[in-house]
Every structure is written in C-alpha cells, then in structure tokens.
Design goal:
The protein is α/β, with parallel strands linked by helices. The chain contains eight helices and seven strands; from the N terminus they run αβαβαβαβααβαβαβ. The protein is elongated.
C-alpha cells in the first residue's frame, strides 16, 4: 500500500533544501527507494545528491520545458553528480533537442521522449456514468459540475478558480465546483470559498484514486 508525504517546507527559508534532503534521506533509509521520478531540475539535483548516500536503483528526470540546462552550473551538476543510473525524459522532441544541445556530455540514448502517458482506451472503459460518479464523490444530483484535478498548490491557481466561480454563482444557482487533489492549502481554499459565500457549493474532495 502506498503513502503520500507532504514535506511542508517554506521555500522562502534559505534552509528548505537541507530540510528536504534530511527528510528524504530518513524516508529512503527507512523504506529504501527502488525508483525516483523527479520533475524539473531542482528536485532532480536534490535526489542525485541523496543517491550518493542512499543509492536508488532507477532514477528519472522529467523535463517539461526547454532551458533546464542552459546554466553552466546545472550542466556541471548533471555531468558530475548524476550517476549513470539516471534516465532523462523529455515530453517532446523539441525539449529533447534543447536538452541535448546543453548536455553534450550525455549519451543521446539516455534521453528519451515520452509523450502524454495516458492509455485513453483503458481510461474510457473505466469511466462511470454521471450519476454514479457524482454519487461516489458526494456531489449533489442534477447539479452542473465545474471540475478541476490538480494538487493544491499556489501555482495551479485554485484561488482564481474559486473567485471566478463565486463571480458567476448568482447567475448559475445550480452550479457546483468540484476540486480533486491533495495538498496543504485545503483549509485556505475552504476559507476562501466561505468568505466568498460559496462554501456549500465548493467541494474540496482530496485525493481520489483514478480520478
């Protein structure tokens, strides 16, 4: 059975990276990581350092945007800190070309392009009918549902989503907002919805398997 851990770190504190490394090291020693999938450069560099003290069998750095290695310091880190057990994943050939252009020390075979990894047919077959899905999520029957699936992070703009919903709520009295995702901002978003007068119509549903 898996588990989810939120490190609850304040990125404004200069020590947040050291705190993250300490907690990840404790987790790795207790459970041993068979694989690590890291998105973007900074988490990847932290795990590459952790790997030196708590070896991990398979490591993946996922690159979503070009420019990850345009800084010389990052190129040197990838060259000398990242072990040969790392595979570099890019979400498009455009990002792959940019990545290889700035990581000339890497063997190109270690950089793989993996497009949207969703088995559409399997997901479509598992879809529930509207009424059944609403019942499982505890949403009101016959309501117009506006949905969002993302972790509860400031970068995902849930605040704007709730504010926009509140601005049209009087014109659409049968509409409800359903937000699926985990994170440490749930209480903040619940209070925002209450303050805007739509607390009973905004549903923060947390983590939902196969949402």
């Amino acid at each position: 059975k898996g588990s989810v851990h939120f490190l609850q770190l304040n990125h404004k504190q200069t020590t947040w990276r050291f705190k993250a490394l300490a907690r990840l090291f404790k987790l790795c020693r207790a459970q041993h990581f068979d694989a690590a999938v890291c998105h973007h450069y900074k988490p990847s560099a932290m795990i590459a350092l952790l790997d030196r003290f708590c070896p991990i069998n398979k490591l993946f750095m996922v690159n979503h945007n070009p420019g990850n290695l345009r800084r010389k310091g990052r190129r040197l880190t990838v060259r000398y800190l990242f072990s040969k057990r790392w595979t570099f994943v890019t979400v498009s050939d455009w990002v792959r070309r940019d990545f290889l252009a700035h990581a000339q020390s890497l063997v190109p075979d270690r950089v793989k392009t993996v497009y949207n990894c969703i088995d559409i047919e399997t997901i479509t077959r598992s879809h529930l009918q509207t009424a059944e899905a609403g019942d499982q999520l505890g949403l009101p029957a016959n309501a117009l549902i506006c949905g969002n699936i993302h972790r509860l992070d400031t970068s995902k703009g849930h605040d704007y989503f709730i504010q926009a919903f509140a601005s049209i709520s009087e014109q659409m009295p049968d509409a409800h907002l359903a937000i699926i995702g985990g994170g440490d901002r749930q209480a903040i978003l619940e209070k925002l919805a209450e303050d805007l007068g739509v607390g009973t119509r905004v549903h923060l549903l947390g983590l939902v398997p196969e949402a």
